[in-house]
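Task 17 of the worksheet. Students: predict the tertiary structure of the chain below and write it out as structure tokens. Keep your answer in the requested format; marks are given for formatting as well as content.
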Amino acid sequence: MPTFQSKKFVPKSYQNTLAASYRSSLSRHPFLLFGLPFIATMVAGSFFLTPAAALRYERHDRKVKTLSRDEELGLKRTQGRKAFDINEEYYRLAAKDLDDWDNERVKRLKGEGDGVLR
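Model answer:
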């Protein structure tokens, strides 16, 4: 004879309660009584939290100002200044003489190495 009984002790006051009936039917239908309410809670939570997330992003969008292309590049026309034209800038740089130049060393500060290896 085994030392301990294999049958669990259940008090008589527990047998007729809602918890007892739920626990006994949970072993027979686990998805219906545990899985389905869990999935339903997740789906309902998703629907309830969507407006809160949208509100967060709308508030962020109000804070961020959308810049036009000119403002982004800092080329906003000021009074007396003409607009930037890429073609005009290209031809202005192409007209420069790039073959006539001298290589001059930059004067160094005191204590700064001149970069010449001796």
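Marker's comment: Helices lie at 18-28, 30-63, 69-73, 86-94. The first helix runs from residue 18 to 28.
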